[in-house]
Amino acid sequence: MSVSLQPYNISLPSFSPVFIYEPQRDGPPNLGWNSSYSVGPQPLAFSPYGIVGQGIAYHVTQYDGASISLGFEGTAVYFCVSEGTSALYTFLVDGTQISTTGDPTDAACANYGGLANVLLVANALDYGVHNVTLLVHVSNAIPQVQFFGATVTVGAGERGAKTTQVIDDSKFQYTSGWYSADDDPLMWNGEYQVSCDYSPNSIASYTFTGADAVMLHGLSLYDDYGFTVTLSNQPPVIFNASDTYWRHSSVLLFFAGGLNNTDSYTITIANYDPNQPNPPTVNNPNNVAGTACATVDKLVLVQDDLSSTINGTTGGAPPPVSSTLSIGWILAIVFASLLFLVLVALVYLVLYWRRRYRKLAERDASIDGSILDGIDPTPWSDRNTFTAVAQNTSELSLGFLPVGSPDTALNPPNARVPPEVVAISPHSYPRLTTHSAETKAVGQLDRNTPPVSRAPEEIQLARRRPSARSDTSSSQQVPPISLTGEMLQTISAVVSRQLQQEYTTREGIGQPPAYVSQPDNQ
Question: Where are the transmembrane segments (predicted)?
Fold first, then answer.
């Protein structure tokens, strides 16, 4: 067995049947060992139900050559004793004397109320089966040795935290002869199983898996004599649980460590000692006839704290169901959350850019688009620009042309005036006041304001660059074009075209007349 097993300490009181007392378990101390308690005198009357002791239990002897033996599988053992004057003893482990002692106030002896004054130590043993013996040497009946109990260190599976699971006696399987008793409230759940059928066939058994160590509890009473315990793959062991006066409830009857928690084990207790085929005669002060009995109170399984493999084939608690999420579910939830956040961000960005694109489109939209049917806006002009264009009318094509003379330009020279948009024709028609009035009403134009016209290439340039530009005939810079002026000119051109279409339709002619603005008579 590997030394890397988790150490597990088990406390053993002096009245546990796992200790073998010689030459007798309970009797006068000068003839062997005597079972006693630290409070009150030894009972004077025998009780078939036993007496619950007061104080600290211990065994005492004044017999030279008295001994206590213990067998276990583990790595350490600690004996707690109290020695009288001139009382000598020998502490043997696997036949080798051990003289190591420790502090009697150590936790190994903490259950004995400070009555133990010697701690015998045998630790750092190789893991395996060991036999321990305490041998007493006295020269007369005065000195005595008191034994309070021991602690053993066994192996309990892999290293880590451990827990225990209690299997109630009702979960065992029993042959005939076993019955339930409920006369002891100190037993587990207040009841236990009893067999007084002294026979190798009087058996109680339980099968389990998932345990690193196991402990069997029962009763120690005057008529609980020899019994045999068998654990799978291990040799049977025989113990004696009798006590003349005292009743020890739920005492440790058997223990074993170093189990493989992946294996299945069956523990069996038989009310029988093969070394004593006939039931013993009960020896008690009142010579009360007794019957050899055996008891089962509970089974304690030591297991890994996180283990969920405790499954007894004949009973036991079901394995715990985990309520935690697996790693796969956790990762799936995290991924889904991140994906949701990404989708929300994408939707927000799409809405944001659509809103921004709409605003940019509204800001950059040109007024000469489909709204005005391709009509180019005519910018405002000053007198120098007007003069230069008017002198080169021969280069202009038919269409919307300026009419007037430089003399009609406003002063000062750089004043910006809205032009009057008119149409010309080679035909000489009289000017109709109604049409002129309509044009005046729409554009709110002044007859004395000289219109301005541009060559086609200049008009296209104005579409691309509505800002001020230099005239070829003058070094004076033209002021920047006003957007409001451009809109008024464009609206005037649209109204003029509409008037032309109405006239041609009404008169039935192919070419529109030229509406010539006449200067007012002074």
Answer: 327-353
What span, in angstroms and rounded, lies between the C-alpha atoms of 50 and 288? 13
Question: Measured between alpha carbons, how far is 418 from 485 in angstroms, rounded to an integer?
Answer: 7
For helices 483-507 and 433-443, the axis angle rounded to 10 degrees is 160
pLDDT of residue 433: 41
Name the architecture of domain 156-320: Sandwich (2.60)
User: Are 206 and 171 spatial neighbours (Cβ–Cβ below 8 Å)?
Assistant: yes
Average pLDDT over residues 394-398: 40
Give the pLDDT of residue 445. 41
d(CA 118, CA 116): 6
Q: What is the mean pLDDT of the chain?
A: 75
**Listing from the earlier edge strand, what are the strands of the sheet with 192-195?**
178-181, 192-195, 294-296
In sequence order, which residues have a C-beta less than 8 Å from that of residue 90 and are 6 or more positions away?
97, 133, 134, 135, 137
Task: Name the pairing type of β-strands 145-155 and 7-13.
Answer: antiparallel
State what percent of residues in the chain have pLDDT above 70: 63
Do residues 186 and 180 make contact, with C-beta atoms less than 8 angstroms apart? Answer: no
Which residue matches tokens 């030279």? 64
Tokens of 15: 């009245």
Q: What are phi and psi of 62, to 5 degrees?
A: -125, 15
pTM above 0.85, yes or no: no
Residues in the chain: 522
Closest CA relative to residue 18, chosen from 74, 99, 100, 83: 74
Model confidence at 139: pLDDT above 80: no
Task: With beta carbons less than 8 A apart as the criterion, state whether 490 and 375 touch.
Answer: yes
Distance CA 237, CA 193 (A): 20
Domain boundaries, the chain: 1-155, 156-320, 327-365, 372-507
d(CA 286, CA 431) in angstroms, rounded, equals 159
What's the chain's Rg over C-alpha atoms? 60
More confident site: 358 or 309: 358
Spatial separation of the C-alpha atoms in residues 116 and 102, rounded to whole Å: 12
Encoded tokens for 414: 């750089």
The first and second tokens of residue 359, run together, are: 């605003």
Assigned fold of 1-155: Jelly Rolls (2.60.120)
Contacts of 333 (CB under 8 A, 6+ apart): 325
Q: Can you tell me the distance from the alpha carbon of 353 to that of 78, in angstroms, rounded to the nearest whole number? A: 82
